[in-house]
Amino acid sequence: MTEPREAETDVPETDFQLSRQDLDAINKAIDDGDGPTLDALLEPVHAADIADLIEQLTPPRRREFLNLYSGEIDGEILSEIDESIRDEVIEQLPHEVLTEAVREMDSDDVVDLIEDMEAPEQQAILAALDESDRAAVERSLTWPEYSAGRLMQSEVVTAPGHWSVGETIDFLRGEEWLPDQFYHVVLVDPRRHPTGYVTLGKLLASRRDVLLRDITEDSFRTISARQDEGDVAYAFNKYHLISAPVVDDDDRLVGVITIDDAMSVLDEEHEEDFLRMARVSDESHVSDGPFQTARQRLPWLVINLCTASLSALVISRFESTLAQLVILAALMPIVASTGGIAGTQSLAVAVRALATRELTSANARRVILRELFAGLLNGVGLALILTLAGAIILGSLQIGLVLGMAMIANQVVAAMGGVLVPLGLSKLGLDPALASGTFVTTMTDMMGFFAFLGLASWVLV
């Protein structure tokens, strides 16, 4: 008996993805092994939606899909597929389909496709390209990994500054090699140094006799091919760039970076920071199996287990106090958990501010003082509530006061730790999103238990 297929393509229906009816029809075509029907269903679908569909399938189901649809995979679909499963898809594509798909891709997409491949696989892909395209990709691969040189596309539209608008438009109309998408005409001098750029909108809106050098944009700036791609994304976001020329060590034009590639980097960095703050590998995906998921998460769980042992050690030092006042054991989590939440709030703000460059050495002191006073104010507010609750519910003003004082101490530590820990890691050249959460949680737990039990030993016992 054939086991029922899971609806791996079961996603919420919106205007920007496949409908429930389309997904049911696609699943049925896969179950029936009906390639022509599958082709007909996906023929009007955007490449990005087809890529999403492929990503959401389990590996066995994905193989069935590709067996039926592999002949229709083109460069646009291939470039949209997430890197985590792209190699798996490539391995299953017939060689002639893969080579045709690669020929359709821009040079930056080809670089992104092959940069992590082994040398034999790279050579097989490069061999499918035209000589000029192959040379452009090979040049890009000579730049450092995660640099602007790897991110740029080599296809760039250039013109000398003394050309008129009419000459430029006639030139563009007569060329067949132009990129599918470009936003600027880059002006270059005889030594191929970029001197400015003109937007296509300004080009079309100007008279034919106007010189290009007279309608250049103030936003023009060049990017070194060695610049880190994270810095490139930051520059695009800060200066509202649409595209930017890339130059080599001699300031000669070697390519251009467009906004879609820069924003992809920004999205990847934000996603990576979010996952790392949760101590989850940035290679984790919903299509991963349970063993792969467990293997990615287990190391951080072990680290958290070790740090939690420090909190247990603190508690063990107050064993006699707990033996005399058993009620303290029930009240301990209040201080520790509230401090953990406060630390996470402060940490999230600090890590985001570091990532967006809002938190720098210039304003670090002001931010630290702000968090200190915010933690103090929160602590006092919570302390008043706990003191009143201790007096009314527990019938002990002293226990309420101990809870309140411990809460003030822990809120201050949590707020300060949420800023100081990521700042310290950043100064050491480490990713503040990776380990900050573990350190801050450990600090708040240990401080919460120590403050509460220490004050209890002093005041109550």
- Number of H/I helices: 21
Cα-based radius of gyration, to the nearest Å: 29 Å
Number of domains: 3
Name the helicity range: 55-70%
How would you name the CATH homologous superfamily of the largest domain? Answer: SLC41 divalent cation transporters, integral membrane domain
Output the CATH topology of the largest domain.
Tetracycline Repressor, domain 2
| SSE run | HHHHHHHHHHHEHEEHEHEEHHHHHHH
Tell how many strands the DSSP assignment holds.
6
Strand content: 5-15%
The CATH architecture of the largest domain can be named as Orthogonal Bundle
CATH class of the largest domain: Mainly Alpha
The main sheet comes to: 3 strands, mixed
Apparent shape: globular
Poorly predicted ranges: 1-13
End-to-end Cα distance: 70 Å
What is the typical, i.e. mean, pLDDT?
Answer: 83
- Sequence of strands across the biggest β-sheet: 1-2-3
Identify the notable features of this structure and list them briefly.
mainly alpha; 3 domains; Tetracycline Repressor, domain 2; 6 strands; CBS-domain; 21 helices
Describe the structure.
There is one protein chain. It contains 21 helices and 6 strands. The chain is mainly alpha-helical and 461 residues long. It has 3 domains: 20-104, no CATH class; 158-277, CBS-domain, CATH 3.10.580; 290-459, Orthogonal Bundle (Tetracycline Repressor, domain 2), CATH 1.10.357.20. The longest helix is centred in the C-terminal third of the chain and has 31 residues, at 397-427. It is globular, with a radius of gyration of 29 Å. The N and C termini lie far apart (70 Å). The relative contact order is 0.06.
